């Protein structure tokens, strides 16, 4: 088990390095640099001397391979460099945003799990019923909704018209500010979870071991508890893991819409300011979180399902 | 053959959107960009402005119609690029194996680790906003699933008798891949492609909403919504209709994809995307 964990952790390093390399190269080929984009507002074009000095100070005048080697060297020490704009260390800037992002991602996934899994389960228990049809139509619709538009509509209805929740911002970090963005972000994983749960429960219900359990006289509630739930859980858990990753990606738009001070809005803001170290840091952090979540899900699945071997 | 509701409803919705985009010059009441008139700003929906007017007094109905062109172009073309990349990489990796397979698998694992919207955002940050950039950003970031599937199906097909027979007959590798293997793995790939188109439409809208995709004044549903956010208190209808248009388009594509899956890929009923 420990050896498996260690090997999986080591396997993430080449992926992280590859991502770092791709992102680094992408941002090195941009025409124009941070210094030249400072003059983009048209108010004042920077003097050539000043620009050269800024590039030198920011380390942008060295050749590409030197910069990449330096970058990887810093990464190995968990140093993501410092922001071009504020000169603060990127790790600190990102650390500030991690908690709000985690809150939002966890809240939206909780919402998705608590509503989606029982819905899919109930639908599978009565295939072809009204509940089944309605919830599956709702699931396809949920998958097709643009999150930021849903967020906008929720904002209009529940914040501006009814005044139940604040319309945007983080406030003091309380639950009230969390509800609307979490719902907007959670609807599509909810829909997918409902569909996956229904499909996997239906499949398991027709499996041989369920028929055997029934025919040897096991009560229906025991069949559901012992056989259905445990087997469906593996598939549901895998979906939750994958969706967690996509939620982190999708959070970019929802955080921006609700002015939520998370990683996503930091990424969008830094992209428009061309604050490359922060952009690189955000993307690497997101990828790292995604890989860790996948690892946790794999380990959990192996714990629930003895058929899955650590290989 | 039994009646497949999702296929027909999805197809009808998608066809409606295609027709709206294609016939936009005849169906629209005004020019989507030029006909701004501040006298009409934020007029609610009515006889003259079916969907109301936006902050600059432009007819939202006309803009939504023209917006279909951008969404469909980006959705269809970017997904086509993804599919070609995914099939080419996956099929060649599965067929040839060896170091090439390692390279492709490594690349796929890397792509799967970066959320595609985040990757597309990074690419849009480098390129200047616009249609070509969107096609590049969305066309290069969502092929990993197609690639995996093509690789796996090629692996299972390449040692079958009929493929070996083709090899003995002296067919070249490329000819075997294109004429013997590709037709047999096409079904699931079409399904993924259709569902991916919905995803691409959503991604385009999201990027344009963030100001990185299609820039105003051009009528993209996403950029219309980014303007609308500031008017939500005074003119909520500005944000209702572009969002509904995105929803209907993506719903159509998702239903169509589900329906196609039932026909083309019947074993994968349980396999969620």
Largest pleated sheet of chain A? none
Shape of chain A: flat
| End-to-end Cα distance of chain A | 10 Å
* CATH class label of the largest domain in chain A: Mainly Alpha
CATH architecture term of the largest domain in chain A: Orthogonal Bundle
Greatest interface (CB-CB under 8 A), with counts per chain: A-B, 53 and 48 residues
Q: Number of folding domains of chain B? A: 1
Instruction: State the end-to-end distance of chain B.
Output: 25 Å
Please explain how this structure is put together:
- The complex is a heterodimer of chains A (311) and B (273).
- Helix content of chain A is 76%, strand content 0%.
- Chain A is mostly helical and 311 residues long.
- Chain A has 2 domains: 2-90, no CATH class; 97-304, MetI-like fold (Orthogonal Bundle), CATH 1.10.3720.10.
- With 273 residues, chain B is an all-alpha fold.
- Chain B has one domain (2-272): MetI-like fold (Orthogonal Bundle), CATH 1.10.3720.10.
- In chain B, 70% of the residues lie in helices and 0% in strands.
- The two termini of chain B are 25 Å apart.
Output the keywords:
heterodimer, A: 311 residues, MetI-like fold, 2 domains, B: 273 residues, mainly alpha, 0% strand
Please sum up the structure shown.
Chain A has 311 residues and is mainly α.
Topology:
The complex is a heterodimer of chains A (311) and B (273).
Chain A: H1 2-28, H2 34-37, H3 48-57, H4 64-76, H5 90-125, H6 130-144, H7 147-161, H8 175-205, H9 208-215, H10 220-257, H11 263-273, H12 276-304
Chain B: H1 5-22, H2 24-27, H3 60-96, H4 98-113, H5 116-126, H6 131-139, H7 144-157, H8 161-168, H9 173-209, H10 221-228, H11 237-264
Helix pairs in contact in B: 1-3, 1-11, 3-4, 3-6, 3-7, 3-9, 3-11, 4-7, 5-6, 7-9, 8-9, 9-10, 9-11, 10-11
